[in-house]
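Appendix C: a fully annotated inverse folding record. The material below is reproduced so that readers can follow the format used throughout the book. The structure is listed first as C-alpha coordinates, followed by the designed sequence.
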Protein backbone atom coordinates (compact mmCIF):
# COMPACT_ATOMS: atom_id res chain seq x y z
CA UNK A 1 0.00 0.00 0.00
CA UNK A 2 2.82 2.42 0.87
CA UNK A 3 4.36 1.80 -2.53
CA UNK A 4 1.12 2.92 -4.20
CA UNK A 5 1.05 6.04 -2.05
CA UNK A 6 4.63 6.86 -3.03
CA UNK A 7 3.82 6.52 -6.75
CA UNK A 8 0.72 8.68 -6.31
CA UNK A 9 2.75 11.36 -4.54
CA UNK A 10 5.28 11.39 -7.36
CA UNK A 11 2.40 11.83 -9.82
CA UNK A 12 1.00 14.75 -7.78
CA UNK A 13 4.44 16.31 -7.56
CA UNK A 14 4.78 16.15 -11.37
CA UNK A 15 1.37 17.83 -11.83
CA UNK A 16 2.35 20.52 -9.38
CA UNK A 17 5.64 21.11 -11.17
CA UNK A 18 3.89 21.95 -14.44
CA UNK A 19 2.15 24.97 -12.90
CA UNK A 20 4.91 26.16 -10.66
CA UNK A 21 7.79 28.31 -11.78
CA UNK A 22 9.92 27.10 -8.88
CA UNK A 23 10.79 23.54 -7.86
CA UNK A 24 8.00 21.51 -6.32
CA UNK A 25 8.40 20.47 -2.72
CA UNK A 26 10.22 17.23 -2.32
CA UNK A 27 8.46 14.57 -0.33
CA UNK A 28 9.75 11.25 0.91
CA UNK A 29 7.71 8.27 1.94
CA UNK A 30 9.57 5.78 4.06
CA UNK A 31 8.35 2.22 3.91
CA UNK A 32 8.32 0.69 7.35
CA UNK A 33 9.85 -2.72 6.93
CA UNK A 34 8.69 -5.07 9.66
CA UNK A 35 11.47 -7.53 10.28
CA UNK A 36 10.66 -11.14 10.84
CA UNK A 37 9.89 -12.64 14.21
CA UNK A 38 10.27 -16.39 14.42
CA UNK A 39 8.33 -18.57 16.85
CA UNK A 40 9.35 -22.13 17.70
CA UNK A 41 7.04 -24.24 19.86
CA UNK A 42 8.56 -26.92 22.05
CA UNK A 43 6.08 -29.09 23.97
CA UNK A 44 7.54 -29.59 27.46
CA UNK A 45 6.61 -31.59 30.55
CA UNK A 46 4.15 -34.51 30.71
CA UNK A 47 1.43 -31.82 30.20
CA UNK A 48 2.81 -31.12 26.68
CA UNK A 49 2.93 -27.42 27.48
CA UNK A 50 3.84 -25.17 24.51
CA UNK A 51 7.07 -23.46 25.48
CA UNK A 52 7.82 -20.80 22.82
CA UNK A 53 11.21 -19.55 21.68
CA UNK A 54 10.49 -16.17 20.08
CA UNK A 55 13.30 -14.69 18.00
CA UNK A 56 13.77 -11.12 16.72
CA UNK A 57 15.39 -11.98 13.37
CA UNK A 58 17.09 -8.60 12.89
CA UNK A 59 19.08 -8.88 16.13
CA UNK A 60 18.95 -12.68 16.67
CA UNK A 61 17.87 -11.99 20.25
CA UNK A 62 15.19 -14.15 21.81
CA UNK A 63 12.77 -14.62 24.67
CA UNK A 64 11.59 -17.94 26.03
CA UNK A 65 7.91 -17.91 26.98
CA UNK A 66 6.75 -20.42 29.63
CA UNK A 67 9.69 -22.79 30.09
CA UNK A 68 7.76 -25.32 32.18
CA UNK A 69 10.52 -27.92 32.24
CA UNK A 70 12.69 -30.12 29.97
CA UNK A 71 15.12 -27.22 29.82
CA UNK A 72 17.82 -29.33 28.08
CA UNK A 73 15.49 -29.49 25.06
CA UNK A 74 14.94 -25.72 25.18
CA UNK A 75 18.68 -25.03 25.51
CA UNK A 76 19.40 -27.46 22.66
CA UNK A 77 16.98 -25.65 20.34
CA UNK A 78 18.36 -22.22 21.30
CA UNK A 79 21.87 -23.48 20.48
CA UNK A 80 20.71 -25.00 17.19
CA UNK A 81 19.25 -21.63 16.15
CA UNK A 82 22.34 -19.75 17.38
CA UNK A 83 20.28 -17.00 19.05
CA UNK A 84 20.92 -15.27 22.36
CA UNK A 85 18.26 -15.42 25.06
CA UNK A 86 17.55 -11.97 26.50
CA UNK A 87 14.82 -12.76 29.03
CA UNK A 88 12.25 -15.27 30.17
CA UNK A 89 8.55 -14.43 30.07
CA UNK A 90 5.84 -16.15 32.10
CA UNK A 91 2.08 -16.13 31.45
CA UNK A 92 1.11 -17.60 34.84
CA UNK A 93 2.34 -19.43 37.89
CA UNK A 94 1.41 -23.03 37.09
CA UNK A 95 4.13 -25.63 37.29
CA UNK A 96 3.93 -26.75 33.65
CA UNK A 97 4.52 -23.13 32.54
CA UNK A 98 7.19 -21.91 34.96
CA UNK A 99 8.76 -25.04 36.48
CA UNK A 100 11.97 -24.58 34.46
CA UNK A 101 12.09 -20.77 34.62
CA UNK A 102 14.59 -20.39 37.45
CA UNK A 103 17.02 -22.99 36.11
CA UNK A 104 16.86 -21.51 32.61
CA UNK A 105 17.26 -17.94 33.92
CA UNK A 106 20.33 -19.05 35.90
CA UNK A 107 21.73 -20.88 32.87
CA UNK A 108 21.58 -17.77 30.66
CA UNK A 109 22.05 -15.19 33.42
CA UNK A 110 18.82 -13.41 32.41
CA UNK A 111 15.78 -11.99 34.16
CA UNK A 112 12.29 -13.40 34.53
CA UNK A 113 9.41 -11.05 33.64
CA UNK A 114 5.80 -11.90 34.51
CA UNK A 115 3.29 -13.00 35.39
CA UNK A 116 1.11 -10.48 37.31
CA UNK A 117 1.78 -10.23 41.05
CA UNK A 118 -1.54 -11.99 41.86
CA UNK A 119 0.07 -15.30 40.81
CA UNK A 120 2.80 -15.03 43.47
CA UNK A 121 0.95 -17.59 45.62
CA UNK A 122 1.18 -20.14 42.78
CA UNK A 123 4.90 -19.58 42.25
CA UNK A 124 5.49 -19.85 46.02
CA UNK A 125 3.81 -23.27 45.89
CA UNK A 126 6.03 -24.61 43.09
CA UNK A 127 7.82 -27.15 45.34
CA UNK A 128 4.44 -28.58 46.48
CA UNK A 129 3.05 -28.58 42.93
CA UNK A 130 6.19 -30.37 41.86
CA UNK A 131 5.82 -33.09 44.46
CA UNK A 132 2.15 -33.58 43.66
CA UNK A 133 2.86 -34.10 39.94
CA UNK A 134 6.15 -35.95 40.32
CA UNK A 135 8.25 -33.30 38.56
CA UNK A 136 11.89 -32.82 39.31
CA UNK A 137 14.05 -29.72 39.26
CA UNK A 138 11.39 -27.02 39.69
CA UNK A 139 12.62 -24.21 41.93
CA UNK A 140 10.65 -21.43 43.58
CA UNK A 141 11.69 -17.90 42.64
CA UNK A 142 10.57 -14.29 42.55
CA UNK A 143 10.41 -12.74 39.06
CA UNK A 144 12.59 -9.64 38.62
CA UNK A 145 9.53 -7.91 37.20
CA UNK A 146 5.81 -8.42 37.88
CA UNK A 147 3.71 -7.28 34.93
CA UNK A 148 0.65 -5.04 34.87
CA UNK A 149 -2.10 -4.65 32.29
CA UNK A 150 -1.06 -2.18 29.60
CA UNK A 151 2.69 -2.58 30.11
CA UNK A 152 5.01 -4.00 27.49
CA UNK A 153 8.14 -6.12 27.37
CA UNK A 154 10.99 -5.56 24.92
CA UNK A 155 13.60 -7.84 23.41
CA UNK A 156 15.84 -7.18 20.39
CA UNK A 157 13.83 -4.76 18.22
CA UNK A 158 10.52 -6.33 19.25
CA UNK A 159 7.81 -5.18 21.63
CA UNK A 160 5.20 -7.43 23.20
CA UNK A 161 2.16 -5.80 24.78
CA UNK A 162 0.97 -7.20 28.11
CA UNK A 163 -2.68 -7.81 29.00
CA UNK A 164 -3.84 -9.04 32.41
CA UNK A 165 -6.35 -11.84 31.78
CA UNK A 166 -7.42 -13.34 35.15
CA UNK A 167 -9.76 -16.32 35.49
CA UNK A 168 -7.63 -19.45 34.99
CA UNK A 169 -5.31 -17.94 37.60
CA UNK A 170 -5.73 -14.47 39.13
CA UNK A 171 -2.38 -13.20 37.84
CA UNK A 172 -2.46 -14.61 34.30
CA UNK A 173 -1.07 -12.31 31.57
CA UNK A 174 -0.84 -12.71 27.81
CA UNK A 175 1.77 -11.30 25.41
CA UNK A 176 0.83 -9.72 22.08
CA UNK A 177 3.00 -8.65 19.13
CA UNK A 178 1.01 -5.93 17.37
CA UNK A 179 3.54 -5.84 14.51
CA UNK A 180 3.35 -9.56 13.80
CA UNK A 181 -0.26 -10.23 14.83
CA UNK A 182 0.56 -13.09 17.19
CA UNK A 183 -0.37 -13.61 20.85
CA UNK A 184 0.94 -15.99 23.51
CA UNK A 185 -2.09 -16.67 25.67
CA UNK A 186 -1.05 -19.45 28.07
CA UNK A 187 -4.08 -21.23 29.52
CA UNK A 188 -6.62 -18.44 28.87
CA UNK A 189 -7.85 -19.75 25.52
CA UNK A 190 -7.31 -22.91 23.45
CA UNK A 191 -8.35 -23.99 19.97
CA UNK A 192 -11.92 -25.08 20.69
CA UNK A 193 -11.75 -24.62 24.46
CA UNK A 194 -10.94 -22.27 27.35
CA UNK A 195 -8.83 -22.51 30.50
CA UNK A 196 -9.98 -24.43 33.58
CA UNK A 197 -11.31 -22.25 36.37
CA UNK A 198 -11.68 -24.86 39.14
CA UNK A 199 -8.33 -24.01 40.75
CA UNK A 200 -7.98 -21.88 43.90
CA UNK A 201 -8.90 -18.28 43.02
CA UNK A 202 -10.03 -19.32 39.54
CA UNK A 203 -13.09 -17.46 38.24
CA UNK A 204 -15.11 -18.44 35.17
CA UNK A 205 -16.82 -15.05 34.72
CA UNK A 206 -13.44 -13.26 34.90
CA UNK A 207 -12.01 -15.60 32.27
CA UNK A 208 -14.87 -15.09 29.80
CA UNK A 209 -14.71 -11.31 30.34
CA UNK A 210 -10.94 -11.27 29.79
CA UNK A 211 -11.27 -13.20 26.51
CA UNK A 212 -14.07 -10.97 25.20
CA UNK A 213 -12.77 -7.63 26.43
CA UNK A 214 -9.00 -8.07 26.14
CA UNK A 215 -8.35 -10.69 23.43
CA UNK A 216 -11.11 -10.19 20.84
CA UNK A 217 -10.40 -6.44 20.40
CA UNK A 218 -6.84 -7.30 19.29
CA UNK A 219 -8.33 -8.53 16.00
CA UNK A 220 -9.84 -11.59 14.31
CA UNK A 221 -6.66 -12.01 12.26
CA UNK A 222 -4.47 -12.56 15.30
CA UNK A 223 -2.87 -16.00 15.55
CA UNK A 224 -2.55 -17.23 19.11
CA UNK A 225 -0.27 -19.79 20.70
CA UNK A 226 -2.11 -21.49 23.56
CA UNK A 227 -0.44 -23.21 26.48
CA UNK A 228 -1.47 -26.62 25.15
CA UNK A 229 -2.48 -28.00 21.76
CA UNK A 230 -2.56 -26.39 18.32
CA UNK A 231 -2.54 -22.68 17.47
CA UNK A 232 -5.64 -20.94 16.11
CA UNK A 233 -6.87 -17.41 15.41
CA UNK A 234 -9.16 -15.20 17.49
CA UNK A 235 -11.51 -14.99 14.50
CA UNK A 236 -11.84 -18.78 14.25
CA UNK A 237 -12.56 -19.02 17.98
CA UNK A 238 -15.17 -16.25 17.81
CA UNK A 239 -16.93 -18.28 15.12
CA UNK A 240 -16.62 -21.78 16.53
CA UNK A 241 -15.50 -21.89 20.18
CA UNK A 242 -18.30 -23.65 22.13
CA UNK A 243 -17.43 -21.83 25.40
CA UNK A 244 -16.74 -18.25 24.37
CA UNK A 245 -17.68 -17.92 20.67
CA UNK A 246 -19.90 -15.01 19.59
CA UNK A 247 -22.98 -17.29 19.56
CA UNK A 248 -22.53 -18.29 23.22
CA UNK A 249 -24.67 -16.19 25.60
CA UNK A 250 -22.63 -14.00 27.95
ZN1 LIG B 1 -2.37 -23.25 33.85
ZN1 LIG C 1 -1.00 -25.21 31.30
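Designed amino acids, in order:
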Amino acid sequence: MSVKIAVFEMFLARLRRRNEPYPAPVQWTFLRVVVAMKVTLIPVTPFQQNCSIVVCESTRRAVVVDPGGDIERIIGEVERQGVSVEKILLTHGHLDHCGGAKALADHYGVKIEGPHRDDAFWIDQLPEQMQRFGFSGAQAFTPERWLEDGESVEFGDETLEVYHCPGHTPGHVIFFSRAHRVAFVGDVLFAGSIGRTDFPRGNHADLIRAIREKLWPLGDDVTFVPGHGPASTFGDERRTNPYVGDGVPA
